[in-house]
């Protein structure tokens, strides 16, 4: 995207290309094919500033094995594509070469990735800061339904039957046909539901504009109408074999029909029929997602240093990451404890304690 210099370096592992200050035209399709991650796709990354972004490409012969987009700032290099599964040796190989090319860089940061093992060629530390909640999709709708719990299947059947008496219609709208007013309506549903819980939505006007841009570029909408009235919907993106649910919202007037869960279920079924292999529900609120067959997948933040001395000198930054990891783990524990409260009432006190500790850590972060 930006003018820059391209170098090719051949060593004993792979043919490595360095495109300084540019993103070549082949990168978009290559990222999708290699990683299948929304957060490693150009439509998502382009919502930010890609100025001065560079590209690293590693191949074994003609086979692409690693593709990292990165920026340099001060003494840090940051890989901006996220959500992908990588091999630790590829991270090692990239880090060694980057430190050789840029003397001013002391640390390299990968965020929200799944790595097959610990990078070992240089000093490094990993932190669990995020998660991806994923449904592994079977080949058929029947196979998916059979994977669900008995009570979940019963609830879905009952709500579906009741909704069908009100003229239920589920339609998949391709991204280029998505209307801005429909997105605004779904976001309005999201705001109304959270307001009823005395919570604020993260979907402000800027986020809503970015959401519309993203789904028009690589997404779709699954709309649910009752008697011709838009009652719920899911905004999602597809990257390769993976579907990412970005917003699932419903009119609170239809809470009694379990419309939120029903809308999500219909979108999952549509993904199965389209041949998708995974359905991503993003991170957080796992307790509300586990019933539909979702599983947590941890995502890690890796920091790789030029040498151990630079790592020791960077202790304040590492302590900050360690604190973030504890907040994540406490939030996860709270979510799990809350989910078990109804089955084990004695865990209610544990949930309250975890919530108080988490609140105290957040307050400490705000005061810093």
Can you give me a brief rundown of this structure?
The chain has 368 residues and is of the alpha+beta class. 40% of the residues lie in helices and 29% in strands.
Provide the descriptors you would attach to this structure in a database record:
single chain, 368 residues, alpha+beta, 14-stranded mixed β-sheet, 11 helices, 14 strands, 29% strand, disordered N terminus
Round the Cα radius of gyration to an integer and report it: 22 Å
State the order of secondary-structure elements, H for helix, E for strand: EEHHEEEEHEEHHEHHEEEHEEHHH
Percentage of β-strand residues: 25-35%
The termini sit apart by: 38 Å
Q: Based on CA inertia axes, which overall geometry fits? A: elongated
Structural class: alpha+beta
Estimate the mean pLDDT confidence: 88
Q: What is the number of beta strands?
A: 14
Please count the helical segments. 11
**What fraction, in percent, of the residue positions are helical?**
25-40%
Poorly predicted runs: 1-13
Largest sheet: 14 strands, mixed
Give an overview in words.
This protein is an alpha+beta fold and 368 residues long. The chain contains eleven helices and 14 strands. It has helices at residues 27-35, 42-45, 88-101, 141-147, 150-164, 180-196, 205-218, 259-273, 308-313, 315-340, 348-367, and strands at residues 5-10, 15-20, 54-60, 63-73, 76-79, 85-86, 107-115, 124-136, 169-174, 219-226, 229-239, 242-250, 278-280, 295-305. Strands 1, 2, 3, 4, 5, 6, 7, 8, 9, 10, 11, 12, 13 and 14 form a 14-stranded mixed sheet that branches. A hairpin with a 4-residue loop joins strand 1 (5-10) and strand 2 (15-20). It is elongated. The two termini are 38 Å apart.
């Amino acid at each position: 995207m930006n003018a820059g210099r391209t170098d090719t370096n051949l060593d004993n592992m792979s043919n490595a290309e360095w495109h300084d200050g540019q993103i070549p035209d082949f990168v978009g399709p290559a990222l999708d094919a290699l990683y299948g991650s929304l957060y490693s796709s150009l439509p998502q990354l382009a919502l930010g500033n890609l100025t001065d972004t560079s590209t690293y490409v590693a191949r074994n012969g003609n086979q692409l094995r690693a593709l990292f987009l990165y920026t340099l700032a001060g003494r840090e290099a940051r890989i901006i594509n996220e959500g992908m599964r990588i091999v630790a040796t590829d991270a090692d190989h990239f880090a060694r070469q980057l430190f050789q090319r840029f003397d001013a860089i002391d640390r390299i940061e990968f965020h929200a990735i799944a790595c097959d093992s610990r990078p070992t060629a240089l000093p490094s530390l990993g932190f669990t800061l995020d998660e991806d909640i994923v449904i592994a999709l079977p080949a058929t709708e029947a196979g998916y339904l059979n994977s669900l719990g008995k009570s979940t299947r019963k609830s879905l059947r009952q709500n579906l039957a009741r909704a069908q008496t009100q003229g239920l219609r589920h339609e998949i709208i391709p991204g280029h046909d998505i209307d801005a007013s429909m997105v605004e309506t779904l976001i309005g549903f999201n705001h109304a539901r959270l307001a009823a819980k005395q919570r604020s939505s993260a979907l402000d006007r800027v986020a809503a504009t970015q959401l519309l841009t993203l789904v028009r570029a690589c997404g779709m909408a699954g709309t649910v109408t009752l008697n011709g009235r838009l009652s719920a919907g899911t905004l999602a993106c597809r990257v390769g074999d993976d579907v990412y649910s970005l917003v699932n919202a419903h009119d609170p007037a239809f809470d009694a029909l379990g419309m939120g869960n029903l809308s999500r279920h219909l979108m999952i079924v549509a993904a199965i029929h389209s041949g998708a292999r995974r359905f991503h529900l993003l991170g957080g609120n796992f307790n509300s997602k586990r019933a539909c067959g979702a599983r947590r997948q941890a995502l890690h933040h890796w920091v790789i240093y030029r040498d151990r001395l630079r790592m020791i000198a960077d202790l304040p930054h590492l302590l900050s990451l360690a604190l973030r990891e504890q907040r994540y783990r406490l939030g996860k524990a709270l979510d799990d404890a809350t989910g078990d409260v109804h089955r084990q009432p004695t865990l209610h006190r544990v949930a309250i304690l975890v919530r108080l500790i988490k609140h105290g850590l957040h307050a400490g972060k705000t005061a810093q």
